[in-house]
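Why do we care about 3D structure at all? Because function follows from shape, and shape follows, mostly, from sequence. That is the central idea of this module. The next example makes it concrete: a single protein chain, its amino acid sequence, and then its structure expressed as tokens.
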Amino acid sequence: MEGVADVTEREIAMVVKIVPNDKGNPPGKLADAELHFTDGPLGGLKLIGFAVWERRGGNGRNVTFPARQYSVNGERRSFALLRPVVDATAQDRVRQLVLDAFAEHEAEAAIAQ
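And the structure:
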């Protein structure tokens, strides 16, 4: 039997760190993003593998999540490592946090110039 700790009563404190893609490679990749946990059971850890991309056609931005690539009959596929338990829209909150952090990073960079 699997043990489960219920932490629904408290929020997990985290910071979204943006690492700009200054190389411009691959094309369309704007930045990498990391979730740095500052408190709670994940305090002192970070989750890497997020990326901010310009949507094709330049119409908005998208966030990709950490994934592991594998091959089936020579076809490359990916398996998302951060997956919803029940609510399929749960990833939307994290995606929006990353997009908000990227927008804030862009605004700070524009002021610094």
